[in-house]
Amino acid sequence: MNIITADQLKTILENEDPIVIDARGGTDALERYNRAHLENAQFVDLETDLSEKSADPSVGGRHPLPKPEDFGRFLGVLGISPSSTVVVYDDKKGANAAARFWWMLKAAGHEKVYVVSGGLDAIVEAGIDLTQKTASLHALEEYPIKGWQMPTVDADDVALAAADPDSMVIDVREHYRYLGESEPIDLVAGHIPGAVNIPYNSNLRENGEFMSPADLAAKYKEAFASRDPRKVVVHCGSGVTACHTLLALAEAGLHGASLYVGSWSEWSRTGRPVATGEE
Prior knowledge:
CATH topology of the largest domain: Oxidized Rhodanese, domain 1
Mean pLDDT: 96
Strand content: 5-15%
GO molecular function, one term: thiosulfate-cyanide sulfurtransferase activity
Structural class: alpha/beta
EC number: 2.8.1.-
Organism: Dyadobacter sp. 676
Protein name: Sulfurtransferase
Helix content: 25-40%
Distance between the termini: 36 Å
Shape: globular
Enzyme class: transferase
Oligomer: single chain
C-alpha cells in the first residue's frame, strides 16, 4: 500500500507515531503551510528541498534531483530513519510535491511511506484539525542512501524508448500541453515524438482522490497492452507530476517504470525533435 485515505490517516495518527510531511511547491509554499497544516507536520519545499536547481534547465530540467547523500542528510534533519512510518500530503491532491517526496523516499530504499489521497482537501473534509503551529524538528543522523534505487533515464534513453514498439513513453501533462496548443511554463510547446498522453489527473476520481488499485491496474494494463512495466518511461514538465503516475502504477502493482527527471523542461531546451497535435 502506497496511498491512504484520510480515514486511514486518522487511524495511523491515533495508533502510530508517524513522521508527517507537508510537501508543497511554488513561491508561496511556506506561506500556505503557515496558514494551515496538520499538527506536527514538517514543511518540505519542492523547490529547495526536493530539487537541486541549476543555472541551465537544459541539463536536468527545472527540478533536477538533489544528490542522494544530500537528500539523506535532509531526511536526518526531518527525523526520518529507515524504520520510520512516514505520511506525506500536499495541497494539490497528491499530484505535486507529495508524489515527488514519495518517489524520492522510495528511491532511497524506504519501506513505509504513504501519500494521503486527495491531499489537504480530503484531510479537511474528514474533519481532521489543522493548526498554524510550526512543528518541532527532532533531527537524527544522516539517512543511509546508496544511490537512487528507483529507475531513471536520460534524454537519450527516452529517444530510444519512444522509437521502440516494445517500450512506451508516457507524457502525463494536460492534453492541451501535449498537443502543443499552448505552453504555460516551458519555452516550447509540444511533446516528445512517439510519446503517448495519459494525463496524471486521469488517475483521480471526480472527488480528486485516487482511483482504486483495481481500477488503476485495469487502466494501465490496457494502456500497456503486452508491454512490461519495466519498458515504460514516465515524464511530465519537470519530473514532479510524473511521480503521481509512478505512484498510481505502484498502487496498481505495476512496478519498474522509469522516471525521466528532466522531462519536457529539459527535452524542449536541447534542440531535440518536437511533435505537436496527435502525432
